[in-house]
Each structure stands twice: as structure tokens, then as C-alpha cells.
Amino acid sequence: MANDQTHLVRPSERKRETTQTPGMEREQAVRTPSMWAGVAKTEGHTFSGWHHHGAYESAIYVLRGRIRLEFGKRGKDVLEAAAGDTLYVAPGEIHREGNPDDEASELVVVRGGSGDIVTNVDGPAAE
Q1: Whose CA is closest to 77, among 87, 66, 85, 86?
Q2: What are phi and psi for residue 42, nearest 5 degrees?
Q3: pLDDT tens, 5-64?
Q4: pTM of the model
Q5: Domain membership flag for residue 16
Q6: Which domain holds residue 57?
Q7: Is residue 94 part of a domain?
Q8: pLDDT tens-digit profile of 70-103?
Q9: CA distances (Å), 1 to each of 17, 32, 33, 36, 47, in order?
Q10: Ramachandran area for residue 74 (φ above 0: left; ψ -120 to 50: alpha; else beta)
């Protein structure tokens, strides 16, 4: 449910997000017609499935641990970010993200756009 009035969301009030791609534990803090914001936690050596966020663009800030983002032709482009780094994911970019380390990672994710928040796909494009 969208709530575009100014308000505070405490950790216990975040909604566990179950409709997005499996492989990460996501908690929604804010959802409006044009934005999604929350936190994501990923256990060590765990990756999400392949997906994209349609017209949404995403900023991912790494609070702790590391994240590996695979994208591009055949999923061969790779970005790795550590605590303090921010990743930008362009609208429509087919990707998967995961945690290449033993220690769990924690992220803050903010998405801006419209439409469906996520579309799961079989894999990256070959071309």
C-alpha cells in the first residue's frame, strides 16, 4: 500500500517483500507510485535469480559486506561493491546480484520509476 505522506518507518514496521526475485531477504520501508525503498540482506555465497526492474532505476548502497552485480551480454559484465560503495542499475538492465563472501551483506536499495517493480527472467540476453 502506498503512503506518500511524510512519516517514519521503524525496522519492526518494514514489510518483508516476497514478490521480488528469490535469493535475497528484502524488507520494504517505503512504497509510493513512483518509488520503492528498503533494505536487503544476503547470506554468504547466495545469488538472486536473473531479473530486471522495468522502468525503475536503482541505487544500491552497501552497508556491510560485499555485493557482486552480474549484467550485460551473457551476464559477463561484473561490478563488485564493498561497504560504503553505491551501485547504479539502469532501467531495464537484466542482472542478478549476490554475495560472494562468507559474511552476510546488508544493502539499502532505492528505486525510482513506475510500473511493475520486478520482472523475473530465465537469464541474460545472448546478444
Answers
A1: 87
A2: -135, 125
A3: 898 999 899 988 756 666 788 899 998 999 999 999 999 999 999 999 999 999 999 999
A4: 0.87
A5: no
A6: 27-120
A7: yes
A8: 999 999 999 999 999 999 999 999 999 999 999 9
A9: 12, 8, 9, 11, 28
A10: left
